[in-house]
Amino acid sequence: MKRLYPVIIFAFLSCPTIVRCQFLRSMGMKAGISLASQTCRFTPIDYTMETQPVVGPGISFLMEAFRHEHLSLQTDLAVSVKGSKTTTQSVTVNHLDNDRIVVNKGEFNASRFSYLSFCPLARYRVDKERLTSYAMMGPRLDLLLKYKTGSDYPLDEQNKVIVGLSGGAGVEFSFNQLGVFIEAQYQPDISAVTNHEPLRINNSTLLFTLGIRYLNVQ
User: Fold this and answer.
1) What is the pLDDT of residues 69-114, one digit of tens each?
2) CATH number reported for the structural domain that contains residue 208 in this entry
3) How many helices (H) and strands (E) does the chain have?
4) How many structural domains is the chain composed of?
5) Stretch (H or E) spanning 209
């Protein structure tokens, strides 16, 4: 899987050259913080572990193409950190005592997952002189780069490819050929980090970024 990362990055960086003459309308980057959380659910006992969010950095490179009066297609290539914090060390079920759940709590620790994300977004905008407000939504593909945890029970089996969604909104101020914008996104996952019984983990992330784009690329 790691062999695919350079190919994806090369394809993303090559796209401006391919489409510049006719389709590319803007390109830029954005950076900020992510507030990541996880849902950890044990089956078949239907127990959800209490977790707390982790804060991490987020950085994206973007390009916008096929721009019409209100609609355009934006593609983001991002590196983000996801995960959660918890004090739970293990969960056991006493089947002889009506499936009574025993939660063993230990020291506070955090689990972090670093992903390379590829996200094509449909972007709808409303232009008013130099101020533009916009909303966007689209699918997302996350490729696992690194996993780090302080837990005594690390995940041995996890999905290296995660499918999810991205949706958000932002406000942009433009002058000459530059645009400066602030943006918020919500990124829920469709596929699980791990879904090997009895544990299923799903990511979700709030992302807040400040960015700059070069407009009217031709």
Assistant:
1) 889 999 999 998 888 877 655 666 555 555 566 666 656 678 888 9
2) 2.40.160.20
3) 1, 9
4) 1
5) strand 199-215
Say which DSSP state 126 is in: E
Tokens matching residue 135: 């909303």
Domain that holds residue 189: 4-215
* HSE value, Cβ hemisphere, 13 Å, CA-based, for 188: 4
Rg (CA), the chain: 20
Per-residue pLDDT, 107? 62
State how far the Cα of 167 lies from the Cα of 135, in Å rounded to an integer. Answer: 8
Give the DSSP per-residue string, 77-119: EEEEEEEEEEEEEEEEEEGGGTTEEEEEEEEEEEEEEEEEEEE
- Among candidate residues 123, 135, 109, the one with its CA nearest the CA of residue 74: 123
What are the backbone angles phi and psi of residue 190, rounded to the nearest 5°?
A: -90, -50
